[in-house]
Amino acid sequence: xxxxxxxxxxxxxxxxxxxxxxxxxxxxxxxxxxxxxxxxxxxxxxxxxxxxxxxxxxxxxxxxxxxxxxxxxxxxxxxxxxxxxxxxxxxxxxxxxxxxxxxxxxxxxxxxxxxxxxxxxxxxxxxxxxxxxxxxxxxxxxxxxxxxxxxxxxxxxxxxxxxxxxxxxxxxxxxxxxxxxxxxxxxxxxxxxxxxxxxxxxxxxxxxxxxxxxxxxxxxxxxxxxxxxxxxxxxxxxxxxxxxxxxxxxxxxxxxxxxxxxxxxxxxxxxxxxxxxxxxxxxxxxxxxxxxxxxxxxxxxxxxxxxxxxxxxxxxxxxxxxxxxxxxxxxxxxxxxxxxxxxxxxxxxxxxxxxxxxxxxxxxxxxxxxxxxxxxxxxxxxxxxxxxxxxxxxxxxxxxxxxxxxxxxxxxxxxxxxxxxxxxxxxxxxxxxxxxxxxxxxxxxxxxxxxxxxxxxxxxxxxxxxxxxxxxxxxxxxxxxxxxxxxxxxxxxxxxxxxxxxxxxxxxxxxxxxxxxxxxxxxxxxxxxxxxxxxxxxxxxxxxxxxxxxxxxxxxxxxxxxxxxxxxxxxxxxxxxxxxxxxxxxxxxxxxxxxxxxxxxxxxxxxxxxxxxxxxxxxxxxxxxxxxxxxxxxxxxxxxxxxxxxxxxxxxxxxxxxxxxxxxxxxxxxxxxxxxxxxxxxxxxxxxxxxxxxxxxxxxxxxxxxxxxxxxxxxxxxxxxxxxxxxxxxxxxxxxxxxxxxxxxxxxxxxxxxxxxxxxxxxxxxxxxxxxxxxxxxxxxxxxxxxxxxxxxxxxxxxxxxxxxxxxxxxxxxx
Length: 815
Hints:
Elements: E1 8-14, H1 18-29, E2 35-39, E3 54-55, H2 62-82, E4 89-90, E5 93-97, H3 100-114, E6 121-123, H4 125-131, E7 142-146, E8 150-151, H5 154-167, E9 171-174, E10 178-184, E11 187-193, E12 196-205, H6 211-217, E13 225-234, E14 246-249, E15 254-259, E16 262-267, H7 293-306, E17 315-325, E18 332-335, E19 342-346, H8 352-369, H9 391-403, H10 427-432, E20 435-440, E21 443-449, H11 468-480, E22 483-486, E23 491-496, H12 500-507, E24 519-525, E25 531-541, E26 544-549, H13 554-564, E27 572-575, E28 580-586, H14 590-594, E29 612-617, E30 620-625, E31 634-640, H15 644-654, E32 661-663, H16 665-674, H17 710-719, E33 723-730, E34 742-745, E35 748-759, E36 764-772, E37 787-791, E38 794-801
Parallel strand pairs: 1-2, 1-12, 2-9, 5-14, 12-19, 22-32
Antiparallel strand pairs: 3-8, 4-8, 5-7, 6-7, 10-11, 11-12, 13-16, 13-17, 14-15, 15-16, 18-19, 20-21, 22-28, 23-26, 23-27, 24-25, 25-26, 28-31, 29-30, 30-31, 33-36, 33-38, 34-35, 34-37, 35-36, 37-38
């Protein structure tokens, strides 16, 4: 069939599934009608056509729950607009607890989702059976009911969205394969197809399981991998009630819903397999994979026990189709960090139907307004590590994503596949010291240290974990003596050239016109005043700077800085993270440890806080920077990789009489949370400005040349503050906090916990949380009133503070 392509369009969307259709529809609703959607096969022919149709709000983060809430609103309103039904029916979802641990998880989940205003009700066994009489109560401990959940038709919803888009003059073309994406000067310029080229200002990659291959055409890393995914549909069952709540049973790896008088049973079972990892076969639409009863049979037997009516039901369909999963279990939604106006919406981990309408609306708002309407660092393309698109890595890691989907989601749970990969130059030394490793951005990192006789493994719990006392001892070593943290995984960007200072001045809110040997803490903002990066910058020389970033944020920070370098700027930036080890030597005895090992004067006057210098240490030289992320006296040591083990040995040989201890990242987080130090991606991100985040002290409003985001930040300052990042300490030393727990002020829901750890010095769980006021208020409002944080269904009173609860005047780091 001949297809007549337009020569140009404002937006080209590639992919005709529910997410591409939603993006087109919502762009048109915002008045952007010069939009073309291209589908190489037929609409819905990727994975949309075989979606089970569940709509469940119990997602893993605050923002992804907000996306589903957007979807729910669309399911309920779309037919009125287009005249075509989505098939949505509100039935509720019932998550079963078939073990005490699962019930504990559901209690925490019930509290967390209330932070989004989602109704969730814990039911006992009798109440559960009353709502779903087909369940076998054997081993049942209760359930968590989400009354607002439901189900619908993925195909019908997509067609309805397409109809709404076409009614607003969006062009939707099938049978057009996009062969390439054209770019110029770091920005998309259009697409190339077999039928011709289309110039475009924006390109959206909504290609589903083809997302990795299609992204690679434009040099954009989109790690995802298709896996075999199963469900079974029975023949009609006589007398089956209609519109029962959907049942999800994690311990049986299955969900069940009634459908046209029959039952659909879907599985998130361990032991799936990858499909198309070397490239999905050409022009494959409506893919169906082979049945495998040998694999699925044991899981089906388990769910038959839970719902005995299945035992006598004949099976009409045993379906296996590919679904794309990502390394971290979060989808990719947003702009590519190194290619302007290239947006990705892919890798939805089998939640594309329930998230798709909302994700499309988010993406449309983002394109039109120039920023995301939701703060979603967890889906940001900038989090992607290069190795995550490696076929062999994906084949291992995404299988674990599926394997763990229906398991209990424990606090501090560690991934085990595709490890070890990136290791610190000090890996051997930390391992010899008893390190129990976690992984972040591919890096093996010592999370805690097991003393002799203690097994080096995690025992997961919602209560105090097996490593609680070990981490507490490490915490106390830093507060009372001296501890050493291997921070080699932190990102390091070398910025140099004649105009390096000018470039950094432009992106930084703080003033970088300092003397060489000074370190500056600063944020980099977007044009809307949101925090894109949170970094420290050391001026090494007049034309040379070192930017320290987090392991998971260094790629996006590098991309942000590269974007800021103009054509006329003589400036380069290079990621030198792997060339240096880094040790944080922290605690009141840090000076006593280090001074005998160097000729440099480390006194408070000789080496003031905020300074950096190359010093001799042991038999070599390191860069020592007097700074802290734990709230104590200390130095960060940047060490050439080839002498890192020597420096470790020198420190630990000299520190025996001082009680020196190796310290892991769990303790580092408890220390930094007590001091209310922020973490990008947890406490702050692109939707927050420095004034809201309590970082106004870094902003130099009148520095020469200003900074990106200054005008927007001035407007925010004039408008006043109506939301604020606040530190909290529970008044009960027993409960633990993790993240996303709802915060109440005088009985009203006002916010949620962003990050938390147990404060071993403060004596209870400590958290940083976002609190919203009904209008712009004085800063004292955020500390006044009666605060409670809900933990697993129980509200616990908490003390709120805008100043750090530990060492509020920061006297200890400057001692």
